[in-house]
TrEMBL record:
GO terms for molecular function: hydrolase activity; transition metal ion binding. Residues 23-213 form the Nitrile hydratase alpha/Thiocyanate hydrolase gamma domain. It holds the Pfam family NHase_alpha. Fe(3+) binds at C123, C126, S127, C128. It comes from the Bacteria. Belongs to the nitrile hydratase subunit alpha family. The keyword Hydrolase applies. Keywords: Hydrolase, Iron, Metal-binding. This is Thiocyanate hydrolase gamma subunit. It comes from Williamsia marianensis.
Amino acid sequence: MTEHDHDHDHDRTVAPMVDEVTDFEVLEIALRELCIEKGLFTAEEHRLFTEFAEQIGPTPAARLVARAWLDPEFKQLALSEPMAASKEVGVDWLEPTGFGTPSDFTAFSILEDTPTVHNVIVCALCSCYPRPILGNSPEWYRTPNYRRRMVRWPRQVLAEFGLYLPDDVAVRVQDSNQKHRFMVMPMQPPGTEGWSEDELAEIITRDSLIGVALPKPGVTTNVITETRAAIHPAQDN
């Protein structure tokens, strides 16, 4: 057998697992390794926190909002002292993992929707997100498409999620930052009067807590949103 007498295809290539590594990902890796080298936290602590964030999801936040809909006193606590209200649903912002990994999220606010105001959160600079109570952010939240356009053309972007708001409803975009995280408290939808906390929590999706969707009876999952390059809207709104 010669060196070319074999049955594999020379033209076959292995597809890369990652098409592109962004500048932010390179920065995160470098910063993480530097923090570990300086002893700010260990690689094991980072792994534990990552696993914690991936498994919690938005369930605590959904329960917080559902309880606020049912209990006016708890709602007042959630809006005035959101960290204290978070503890009532099992989230300690100062030590969210429960095994010694501290949080640097020193401020947290809950934004209440009203019949005339709709809130939506974004991080225009990078991808700051209330992970202790919402888990890891969705992929689209971290894209330049969402981050850059939401602060400029919020109604256009919300429409792409299928959310069309009346003209008399103001859209307030809250830009998160390194030290301050936000989440939305949407309004309780009609037709859910008399529901239990468990029933209400099921329709409070992650997207409604970010502000790109509204809770609806029968809708218990997030809209699958294709990520794509940013485009200029047909007209400014």
